[in-house]
From TrEMBL:
It comes from Thermus tengchongensis. This is Extracellular solute-binding protein. Keywords: Signal. It holds the Pfam family SBP_bac_11. The lineage of its organism: Bacteria, Thermotogati, Deinococcota, Deinococci, Thermales.
């Protein structure tokens, strides 16, 4: 036993140390808050973060895979279709659900990727520019909202890609053509759009709920409207890659995101936590009528780009 003790201790130290690489489209300040909390529990672990819009994150990883040198241990972005593609190629590690009470409906692919909090696409209103807020998606077609509306670029934002796919399927692609006729503008990302909405450059936005709450907490005159016909629940799961050099640490980070501490951080930063019993974000409704997102396929995205003069 004495001869085995140093080896056991060495294995434990090796597990407690290392560098994880995370590729994500999540807001960097929110990711950093979670990374700092994780490192406080795991002081020997470093976490390197590459953060950009979902489109750029996916493009970077595709290029690395083609070069035979993929880097991330963990993936966390809003493109479930790409994760399904990786899963079909055996490039995601199956992680058994070990966190007590985790809602099984959020473990996708038999444990290949996990939701860690909920993100909705909603209608956001600058209350100083819009007196009567819309209550459903079709309300955006009212002439009173002409020239007031914007949304993010679906080539950059995975959440916007979900908006285009979901509303095209539910309301027809002509819905976006009519919004274009009413002067809808396209901004690069949700954060840029939300800041312009807060400044009053727009009166309405199709955007993420948590970001609007973050701007409102700073004093911006913004309100979140969950459409009565269903806010768009955007999948943004976390996955551990099959090529990870530190899979045990990667799983530890994933499990940390489901811990009470991390779930509280999510709520404080405006997100709905995924774990039962976790606090709700301040000012958010107890329940949301949601519809699961459908990401736009390449043909629909091409039509959208042609309509708004965007380039992929």
């Amino acid at each position: 036993m004495k001869r085995l003790l140093p080896l056991t201790l060495a294995l434990g130290l090796a597990l407690a140390q290392g560098t994880l690489t995370l590729y994500t489209s999540e807001i960097l300040a929110d990711v950093n808050a979670l990374v700092e909390a994780f490192r406080a529990r795991n002081p020997g672990v470093q976490v390197q973060v590459f953060r950009s819009g979902t489109g750029e994150v996916v493009a970077k990883l595709r290029a690395e895979l083609e070069a035979g040198n993929p880097q991330p241990d963990l993936l966390w972005f809003a493109n479930e279709d790409f994760l399904k593609e990786l899963a079909a190629k055996g490039l995601l590690r199956r992680v058994p659900p070990t966190v007590p009470g985790y809602p099984v409906q959020y473990a996708q692919g038999g444990g290949l990727y996990y939701e860690v909090r909920l993100l909705y696409n909603v209608l956001a209103v600058n209350t100083q520019r819009v007196r009567e807020a819309p209550s459903a998606w079709r309300d955006l077609l009212k002439p009173a909202y002409r020239g007031l509306l914007a949304m993010p670029d679906p080539n950059f934002s995975g959440a916007a890609l979900a908006t285009v796919g979901t509303l095209s399927e539910r309301l027809g692609f002509d819905f976006f053509a009519r919004l274009k006729d009413l002067g809808m503008r396209i901004e690069q990302s949700n954060p840029v759009l939300q800041q312009k909405l807060a400044r009053g450059e727009y009166g309405l936005a199709i955007t993420t709920d948590f970001g609007v709450r973050q701007e409102a907490a700073k004093g911006a005159p913004l309100a979140v409207v969950y459409p009565r016909d269903g806010a768009i629940l955007v999948p943004t799961p976390v996955a551990v890659t099959s090529w990870s050099k530190h899979p045990e640490l990667a799983v530890r980070f994933l499990n940390f995101l489901l811990s009470p501490e991390a779930q509280r951080i999510f709520a404080e930063r405006g997100y709905y936590p995924v774990m039962p019993g976790a606090p709700k974000p301040q000012g958010a409704p107890e329940r949301v009528v949601g519809t699961r997102a459908r990401f736009a396929d390449a043909q629909t995205l091409d039509r959208f780009n042609a309509l708004f003069g965007l380039r992929r």
